[in-house]
Amino acid sequence: MMRARKFTGWHMFAILLAFFGVVVSVNMVMATAAMRTFSGTVVDNSYVASQHFNTWLADARAQERLGWTTHLGIDESRHVTVALSDRGAPLAGAEIEAVARHPLGRAPDVPLHFQAGRAGAYVSQGALPAGRWLVQIEVRRAGRDLRLIESLS
User: Fold this and answer.
1) Alpha-carbon gap, residue 75 to 123, rounded angstroms
2) Would you call 43 helix, strand, or coil by DSSP?
3) How many angstroms separate the CA atoms of 135 and 105, rounded?
């Protein structure tokens, strides 16, 4: 015959200690993971960045007036492809510079250099590693510039 054990204050203390120990441990693991994967910095100095905001808006409006459209993609060998058009017509003779950045900074930046293919089509010389990338691209042609950031995976 078993006797029921008496529930004492020490039992309650052990239960509370175990409960809060698990909560604190999980919080520490999650905070460490968050700090290692994202620094939290979008711009180094938000005041200085705000001083350029109107200039950035004017540049964006001028870029829209160009009428250029872009389509970024990745082919089967993981080369970045860029299709450019000027109001529907292929845009040939452009110079393209690009940098692929991992969104969380886990991998080093990948500079991309492009070769012209068929009219308005450009293909990167190097392949992009597997994963999700933010491609910051700059297109120049006849003294006009187009800058954009696209997400590729």
Assistant:
1) 9
2) coil
3) 13
Q: Region 133-143: what's the mean pLDDT? A: 90
Give me the count of residues in the chain: 153
- In whole angstroms, give the CA distance from residue 99 to residue 50: 24
Say how far apart CA 2 and CA 72 lie, in whole Å: 73
Provide the CATH number for the domain formed by 69-152 in this structure: 2.60.40.1930
Residue ranges of domains in the chain: 69-152
Residue type, 57: L
Name the strand (E) or helix (H) holding 104: none
67, pLDDT greater than 90: no
Site of tokens 């692929």: 100
The answer for residues whose C-beta is within 8 angstroms of residue 64's C-beta and 6 or more apart is none
To 10 degrees, the CA torsion angle through 82, 83, 85, 89?
Answer: 150
Give the integer Cα–Cα distance in Å for 103 and 36.
13
Q: Looking at the predicted structure, is the pLDDT value of residue 39 above 70?
A: no
* Whether the predicted pLDDT of 47 surpasses 70: yes
pLDDT in tens, 77-130: 999 999 999 888 888 888 999 999 988 777 889 999 999 888 889 999 988 888
Q: Compute the distance between CA of residue 95 and CA of residue 123 in angstroms, rounded to an integer.
A: 12
